[in-house]
Design brief:
Blueprint (H helix, E strand, L loop, with lengths): L4 H32 L4 E11 L8 H19 L2 H11 L9 H11 E7 L5 E9 L2 H21 L3 H34 L8 H17 L11 H51 L24 E7 L12 H26 L6 H8 L13 H33 L2 H12 L2 H12 L1
Antiparallel strand pairs: 1-3, 1-4, 2-3
Length: 437
């Protein structure tokens, strides 16, 4: 009856050959793809991009951003149509009989990969990769492209040095204004306290000491008598001198603070001028304030420096395809397809096999059931045919796929067209990143 162990065994006995045949067909298809799919090797060269000299705090952020921008601009020139066709011809990457330049450019752009990462405080790491069916070709092309990238960086217009010059020039102007402001404050303070400057302290202290000596030499007034007019005048002068001395000492502290601020501003201005002069030596009679800003004729040293840190090497394993993953996926899909075949066949099968089926169809319970006595000869013949089909169908699928791959179109191209037609590229890219991560 339905749901009993005997019924389950009967279902497996009837449906297992077809399910196994379907599972083997899917597995054979996956194995054929894993074997016939051409390998793709990816070689990667690592470069370091940094300014020639370490920038200061005022220009570090801008220069790091500009280095990244320059690398992007150079990479754009590297993948232009003309550059890619020349690289393909010089490196013999495509068949000489292929005259479809659009196909060559599309293929080259798909093979080239360039990533820019933060490598240090000011430096950036550039990873330049190339994919090819041959590992040695992939390494050679990646190294050749790295050399082209370095040459392009040396020949490119040095926008970075111009921007650095502008930043340092603005910084020098700002420090010049600060220096002028601090000097003006110092001069105004000295002018406002002419009589109580630190330079007058020795004179004021000497006068105060002399008056104190004169007061000590005067006769002491008797008790209750008022001091003499001479003593009163000396005491008044002494009090004024002491007030001037206290004011001069306080002014000395303020003047020292103003002088330190002026000296610090002057040091910053001189440092900025030194950096400006080192970056762009000006001819006699010119300077920041002279308005000499003709950049077309300026000879500015290159600032961006690309260094090859790790040349590309021939990879030992292909990046794609992952043959083990394809085979495992084929096995899993085959098992699911076989299980689906069993469930679907049983759901669609209307054959009366059990007493319950008779009751459900006729509305009457059967009086007795007679067991089927199979013919051993016919049963062995059916089993032989099933085993033969289980061997012939997968082998036939493999032969058909091999013929399509060799005579019609490569399987990887056919699969890529199918993926593009179905719009599955974003899904597969996300799956590939998830597996790689």
């Amino acid at each position: 009856m339905t749901g009993t162990p005997g019924y389950a065994r009967d279902v497996l006995r009837r449906r297992l050959p077809g399910a196994a045949l379907l599972a083997l067909g899917v597995l054979a298809l996956a194995l054929a793809l894993a074997v016939l799919w051409p390998p793709v090797y990816r070689a990667e060269a690592v470069l370091l991009a940094a300014p020639n000299d370490a920038p200061d705090a005022a220009t570090a952020a801008v220069e790091t951003r500009e280095v990244r921008t320059q690398i992007t601009m150079i990479a754009q020139r590297l993948i232009t149509r003309t550059s890619l066709i020349e690289a393909s011809r010089d490196l013999a990457l495509h068949d000489a009989a292929l005259h479809d330049s659009a196909a060559i450019v599309q293929d080259m752009r798909a093979r080239i990969a360039l990533d820019v990462e933060g490598g240090g405080e000011y430096a950036l790491t550039v990873r330049l990769g190339f994919s090819a069916p041959n590992p040695r070709v992939a390494a050679n092309v990646a190294n050749a492209l790295a050399d082209v990238l370095i040459r392009e960086s040396l020949a490119a217009p040095d926008a970075l040095s111009l921007q650095r010059r502008d930043i340092i020039e603005r910084e020098a102007r700002r420090h010049d204004a600060e220096l002028e402001q601090h000097s003006l404050r110092l001069a105004e303070f000295r002018a406002a306290h002419v009589g109580a400057l630190p330079e007058a302290l020795p004179r004021l202290r000497a006068e105060a000491a002399a008056i104190s000596a004169e007061l000590a030499a005067l006769p002491v007034a008797a008790g209750g008598d008022a001091p003499s007019p001479e003593a009163a005048a000396l005491r008044a002068r002494l009090d004024n001198l002491r007030s001037d001395i206290a004011a001069a000492e306080a002014n000395a502290v303020t003047l020292a603070r103003l002088a330190r601020a002026r000296d610090a501003a002057q040091s910053r201005y001189q440092a900025a001028m030194h950096r400006f002069s080192a970056l762009h030596p000006a001819p006699p009679g010119t300077g920041i304030g002279s308005g000499s800003g003709n950049r077309e004729g300026e000879a500015i040293d290159a600032v961006l420096q690309l260094t090859l840190l790790d040349p590309a090497r021939a990879p030992e394993r292909p990046e794609t395809p992952d043959r083990g993953l394809i085979a495992a996926a084929g096995l899993g899909l085959g098992l699911l397809a076989g299980l689906g075949f069993i469930l679907g066949a049983e759901a669609l099968d209307q054959t009366v096999r059990t007493p319950r089926d008779v009751t459900r169809r006729l509305g009457q319970a059967p009086l007795v059931t007679i067991a089927l006595m199979p013919d051993p000869a016919s049963q062995g013949s059916r089993q032989s045919r099933r085993q033969m089909l289980a061997l012939v169908v997968p082998a036939g699928l493999v032969m058909v796929l091999f013929g399509v791959h060799v005579l019609v179109v490569p399987l990887d191209v056919l699969l890529a067209r199918a993926v593009a037609l179905l719009g599955l590229e974003p899904l597969l890219d996300g799956l590939h990143r998830a597996i790689a991560g």
